[in-house]
TrEMBL record:
Component of the eukaryotic translation initiation factor 3 (eIF-3) complex, which is involved in protein synthesis of a specialized repertoire of mRNAs and, together with other initiation factors, stimulates binding of mRNA and methionyl-tRNAi to the 40S ribosome. The eIF-3 complex specifically targets and initiates translation of a subset of mRNAs involved in cell proliferation. This is Eukaryotic translation initiation factor 3 subunit H. Residues 45-181 form the MPN domain. It comes from Schizophyllum amplum. It is found in: Cytoplasm.
């Protein structure tokens, strides 16, 4: 009876077999272009026109001082092709832990959504908007250090200058950290001796990568519709009506007053004050280190003299003590902040020089045209 019941029961389903993944071989024609192991070094960065439009729109409309976001794309045959990007929200909360967690959740959600719609979801770097070319700051350095440790080829940072954009120049530059600076940052060695040994200055923190912009036919056609007027059918139409569909003309380039000159001078003065304050702090710490070292050297010299006199008297010498435990000699101060301030000061100076040159040319041109 039991055997009949057992035979009538359905048999247990067999365990599903794990299918081994299959890999397709890379065609020979593409083997030199597809860099699986990231062995081909980056030689240039290519931005799509849609990426340029998004960055400029975000930088112009953002209320934050430094608008930033992530760059998406892939590297192909030494060229980092950036095909998409998205902006990152600005947090005004004072709690850094909650803000960082919220930012991480937002990035994960955006990348998941892009993957669901078959969009590019490979992070290749980030972009940041700046004014007057001053992009040397601690946040940019820390973000780029984190990217160079977890992204292919270290990732890049694309800097967009709003001041140049206001003058009609779409200023985009691509950078990445130099190996020398990255080694010093990992070892936390920004002392005077460390900087001198590595020959590290503010100009060797970042290395610039050539950047080019690629536009597709649709974007070019759209731009042409904005720059070219549509012809009207009526013969008696006024010239103003024929240009109604185009962008309005801008005569800001004819303004004799240099734009942003006062603001540029204010930024230079503020940066110089911050640099002098930082140098004063470094000088105070250096004097404190020198005083503690002098005390330690005097103690060691005194102990040597005592031991010499005791040996001459036939007495055993006193044991040597650890000087570092008796005297708290501070570590040499970090000079990274002062180096970044010098980089900002150099950027403000270059921006001021360009603004002043343009203003002088306009003034001399106006003077020549006004003279009889």
């Amino acid at each position: 009876m039991a055997a009949a019941l057992a035979a009538s029961l359905p048999s247990a389903p067999a365990a599903p077999q794990i299918v081994a993944p299959t890999y397709e071989a890379i065609p020979a024609s593409m083997s030199k272009l597809i860099d699986v192991e990231a062995e081909i070094p980056l030689t240039d960065v290519q931005l799509d026109g849609i990426v340029v439009s998004k960055i400029m729109k975000h930088a112009t409309e953002s209320t934050a001082q430094n608008a930033n976001g992530l760059l998406l794309g892939l590297d192909l045959d030494g060229t980092l092709e950036v095909s998409n990007c998205f902006a990152l929200p600005t947090h005004v909360s004072d709690e850094d832990d909650k803000a960082s967690k919220s930012m991480a959740r937002y990035q994960t959600s955006m990348l998941r959504s892009l993957k669901e719609v078959q969009g590019d979801d490979g992070v290749v770097g980030f972009y940041q908007a700046t004014t007057m070319g001053a992009f040397f700051n601690q946040t940019l350095i820390e973000t780029q250090v984190a990217n160079q440790e977890r992204l292919r080829h270290g990732g890049v940072v694309v800097v967009h200058d709003l001041t140049q954009a206001a003058r009609g120049v779409a200023a985009f530059r691509a950078f990445r950290l130099t190996p020398t600076f990255l080694d010093a940052y990992k070892k936390h060695n920004f002392s005077s001796s460390g900087l001198a040994t590595r020959r590290l200055t503010f100009s060797t923190i970042l290395e610039e990568i050539p950047l080019k912009i690629r536009t597709n036919p649709l974007l070019s056609a759209f731009v042409n519709t904005l720059t070219k007027a549509k012809a009207t059918k009526s013969s008696d139409a006024s010239p103003e009506a024929s240009v109604s569909s185009a962008l309005p003309p801008s005569f800001s380039a004819l303004d004799l007053a240099p734009t942003g000159l006062t603001r540029n001078l204010e930024q230079i003065i503020d940066t110089v004050d911050a640099y002098r304050t930082e140098e004063g702090n470094l000088a105070y710490m250096s004097r404190q280190i020198a005083r503690e070292k002098a005390k330690a050297d005097a103690y060691v010299s005194k102990r040597k003299d005592e031991n010499a006199s005791r040996v001459a008297q036939g007495l055993p010498p006193l044991p040597e003590e650890d000087v570092s435990r008796l005297f708290k000699i501070p570590a040499e101060p970090n000079r990274l902040d002062s180096m970044l301030l010098l980089g900002q000061l150099d950027s403000y100076g270059q921006s001021l020089g360009g603004t002043a040159r343009t203003g002088l040319v306009k003034m001399y041109g106006a003077k020549a045209s006004a003279s009889p």
